[in-house]
Amino acid sequence: MKIPVKITPCPIVEAIVEIKFDYDVDLDPDAIFGIVYKELHEKFPQTTKLPILQLPDAVRLRDPNLISQPHYKLSNEKFLFQIGPRVMSLNNVKGYVGWTIFYKELIDTFSL
């Protein structure tokens, strides 16, 4: 049996790869965003602050439900890149592009 390359109609609404991490360096939570933004702002030209930033730092950093939430969303026409002090994700939105293209985007984005 041959494995299909494309399913029509495609039932995949959104594909997400999320990476959670921790770091030992004493950094301001926004420093990670600044480092990543410098590398990705041309690839993802639209930047949005997420509502979690309305909460005080002390609340966000102490609540285990909030500590791994993204703070910013960078986007282009097909992909969203979300970043927080302990999380990054790449989301394929507005129609699944297929694994070959999504995988290439993952490698290109997370290799920067």
Which properties best describe this structure?
alpha+beta, single chain, 5 strands, 112 residues
Give a verbal description of the structure.
It is elongated and about 55 Å long. The longest helix has 12 residues. The N and C termini lie far apart (38 Å). It has 112 residues and is of the alpha+beta class. Helices cover 27% and strands 23% of the residues. The mean pLDDT is 89.
Distance between the termini: 38 Å
Beta-strand content: 15-25%
The total strand number stands at: 5
Please give the radius of gyration in angstroms.
Answer: 16 Å
**Outline:** elongated
Can you lay out the helices and strands and say which pair or pack?
Layout: E1 15-20, H1 29-40, E2 46-49, H2 57-62, E3 72-75, E4 79-84, E5 87-92, H3 99-110
Antiparallel strand pairs: 1-5, 2-3, 3-4, 4-5
Could you give a short description of this structure?
The protein is α+β, with helices and mostly antiparallel strands. It has three helices and five strands; from the N terminus they run E-H-E-H-E-E-E-H. It has helices at 29-40, 57-62, 99-110, and strands at residues 15-20, 46-49, 72-75, 79-84, 87-92.
